[in-house]
Structures are given as C-alpha cells and as structure tokens.
Amino acid sequence: MPTSIDLSNRIALVTGAASGIGRATAIALAAAGARVVASDRRDDDALRATLAAIAGNGGTAIAIAADVTVTAEVEALVDAAESRLGPIDIAVHCAGVLQEKPFLATTDVDWDHVVGIDLKGVFLCCRAVLSRMVPRGRGCVINVASELGYLGRAEYAPYCAAKAGVIGLTRSLAREFAPTIRVNGIAPGPIDTPMLSAQYMSAETLVKEKQIPAARFGDPAEVADTAVFLASDLSSYYFGQILGPNGGAYMG
Ligand SMILES: NC(=O)c1ccc[n+]([C@@H]2O[C@H](COP(=O)([O-])OP(=O)(O)OC[C@H]3O[C@@H](n4cnc5c(N)ncnc54)[C@H](O)[C@@H]3O)[C@@H](O)[C@H]2O)c1
User: Fold this and answer.
1) d(CA 148, CA 152)
2) 26, 68, 70, 154: which could join 121 in a potential S-S bond, CB 3.0 to 4.6 Å?
3) pTM of the full predicted structure?
4) Where are the beta strands (DSSP E) in the chain?
5) C-alpha 56: how far from its chain's center?
6) CA of 95 to the centre of ligand 1 (A)
7) pLDDT tens, residue by residue, 166-199
8) Residue 200 banded pLDDT, cuts 50, 70, 90
9) CA 201, 104, 164 angle in degrees (round to 5)?
10) Are the C-beta atoms of 81 and 11 separated by less than 8 Å?
C-alpha cells in the first residue's frame, strides 16, 4: 500500500478473520498501523494464525470469537472489543459462506443458513457497531458483498440474493449515517481463498470462474488493499460506494 496510508491510533474490527479475505484484511489493517480485533466463529488455531501473522509484522491484534448470526454474540463481541482495545473506528464485515445447489432443491434450512450469515450477519454487525459509532460522531463501516450480487449465478440463488442485499443495505446505511459515518462496500470477484474450492464449488464452476479479463483468481491481499483504502482518509469522499476488485468480471 502507499506509505501515505496511516491507520495508527485507529481500532479496527474484522469478522471472518480466521481465513481468506478477512485474514488478509486484518493483516493489512494492522500493517497500516491499526490495532485489530480479529473475530471469527471460533477462537481456534486458524484465528490464532491471523494473530501470529500480525504479531510477526510487529502489529497488535486480539481475537474474540462470535457467531455473526447471533445477536447476543455480536453485541458481546463489540462490547468486549471496545473494553479491551477502545472505541471501534473501522469495522470490516467479511464473514460469509457459499453454497452451490439447484434452486428447486434449496430447502428453507439452506436459505436461512446462507442468508443468515451473509445478509443478517452483516445487518447485526452493522447495527452493533453503528449504535456505538453514531453517538461518537465518527466511524467507518465496510461490508463485503460479491460481484455475484450484481450478476447472479445459476445454482447460487441464496448467496446472490444475500450479496445483492448487502449492496442495498450498504447504500441505505451510507445515506442514513452520512456525513459523520462512512459506509461503503467491496464486491470482490473470484479470490483465491478456501471459499473458492471443491468444498463449495463444482469443478465446472471453478473453471468458469477464471474466464474473466484478468484470467486469474485474485489474491486476498488485493481485496484487503481495497479495505485499507476505504478505511483511510484517502477515501474521505466515498459514501455508499461498492468497490470492485474483481479482475474485470463485472464492470458496473
Ligand atoms: N473468495 C471469493 O471468491 C469471494 C468473492 C466474492 C465475495 N467473497 C466474500 O468475501 C467474504 C470472505 O470470504 P472468503 O473467500 O475469505 O471465505 P473464507 O471461507 O476463506 O472465509 C470466511 C470466514 O467467515 C467465517 N464465518 C462463516 N460463518 C460465520 C459465522 N456465522 N460467524 C462468524 N464467522 C463466520 C468462516 O469461519 C471463515 O473464517 C465472504 O463474505 C464472501 O462471500 C468471496
């Protein structure tokens, strides 16, 4: 990142920080000087590996586990984060899940699982952090959506619906809380993380994922750099914008 980005004296909360984009974002924010609260569903070896990477770079981070679908856990996360490190200035909501399934086979449970994490989880996190940021008159929220929120994709209806919802949520909150709080989003294209693997996607879908102008998957650090920019004063005139590190997959 350009050396002009300095986030020292800022406290950043990152969800989904045990893996992929969330981990890279936590590391990048800490490298820019922020003190980081790295959160994921469980405080396990994966989340500890994020802390170790940050400490290895000379940064400061703590781990707090929370399931983003549970209101009480999200509220407790923000309370604990603020009592241990101080008021949250930056919140990046990366926690997410993906499911490939024909629409007519999609059950109520499938829908609630995906939309519960990918949309309701972002709602709960936004409400928890904004309720603290608004009285202080400062803060910055970044929600991670997806290019699929614009494009849609066969056999990914709950995910695409949730991500389109995150875009609408982000723009609504940007209007409601401007000018004191900046709310923006990121809609990545295919990024090389555990989400983009045979665990979640058929081999056929994975091949299609690379058929984009960049002809490669993105690196999580390329999304993290976007988050650092949106968290910094360099983006002071950005409100309700959905930035797209997506290899040209979507050019909206
Ligand atoms: N990888 C991609 O190609 C891609 C593309 C567009 C958008 N995204 C979005 O980026 C975000 C990060 O994805 P990623 O690729 O790093 O995936 P990932 O699977 O590597 O990481 C997702 C993280 O979210 C956590 N998580 C899942 N459910 C949770 C819950 N209920 N509470 C708390 N944490 C929970 C997981 O434990 C995991 O650590 C997601 O919102 C995803 O939809 C990813």
Assistant:
1) 5
2) 68
3) 0.98
4) 11-15, 35-40, 60-65, 90-93, 139-144, 181-186, 242-243
5) 23
6) 4
7) 999 999 999 999 999 999 999 999 999 999 888 8
8) confident
9) 65
10) yes
Domains of the chain: 11-190+218-243 (3.40.50.720)
Distance (Å, whole) CA 30 – CA 58: 9
Instruction: Give pLDDT tens digits for 63-84.
Output: 999 999 999 999 999 999 999 9
Atom of ligand 1 nearest to the CA of 218: 3
Q: Whose CA is nearest to atom 41 of ligand 1?
A: 96
Whole-angstrom distance, CA of residue 38 vs CA of residue 14: 5
Please answer whether residues 40 and 67 qualify as being in contact, where contact means their C-beta atoms are separated by less than 8 angstroms.
Answer: no
Q: Does residue 2 register a pLDDT over 50?
A: no
200 noted as active-site residue: no
Whether 101 and 50 have beta carbons less than 8 Å apart is answered as: no
SS3 29: helix
CB 129 within 8 A of CB 90: no
Contact residues for 129 (Cβ-Cβ < 8 A; gap 6+)? 13, 78, 88, 91, 139, 141
pLDDT tens sequence across 31-68: 999 999 999 999 999 999 999 999 999 999 999 999 99
The helix/strand/coil state of 62 is strand
Spatial CB neighbours of 87, under 8 Å, sequence gap ≥ 6: 11, 132, 133, 136
Calpha distance 41→178 (Å, rounded): 30
CA distance 229 to 32: 10
- Residue 8 CA to residue 19 CA, distance in Å, equals 24
